[in-house]
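Deliverable D4.2, example record:
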Amino acid sequence: MLIRPGFWADFVPWDTDRLDAQALGVWALALGVGVLGALAEDDLTRTRPALLALPGTAATMTVVLAARAAHVDRTSGPALSLVCMVTGLLSAGANGHLLLKRSAALRN
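Output generated by the structure prediction step:
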C-alpha cells in the first residue's frame, strides 16, 4: 500500500484515495512489525500495553465501520477480510489478557 496505493486501494471495501491507502499501509506495517517483535521477544510483561490495546482497537474499528456502513461494500472479499481482522484483534486481545492473568498468578 505504500509503493502501489492505487492497486491496493481496490482491495479495501470502501473508496480510498492515495493518501488513505498509504496511511493504511503504514498502519498495517507498524502493526505487523509490532506483532512480530512481540512474538520474537516472548515477554508478556513488555507486550502488556499492546495486548491490552487490541480489544480497544477492535472496538474502535467496529465503531468506525458502523458509522461508515453506507460506504462499505459488504459483499466484497475485502469486507470479509476486514471482519476477520477485527475478530482476530478481539480474540488476540482476549487471549493476551488471559495469558497476562495466568503469568501474574504464576509469579505470585
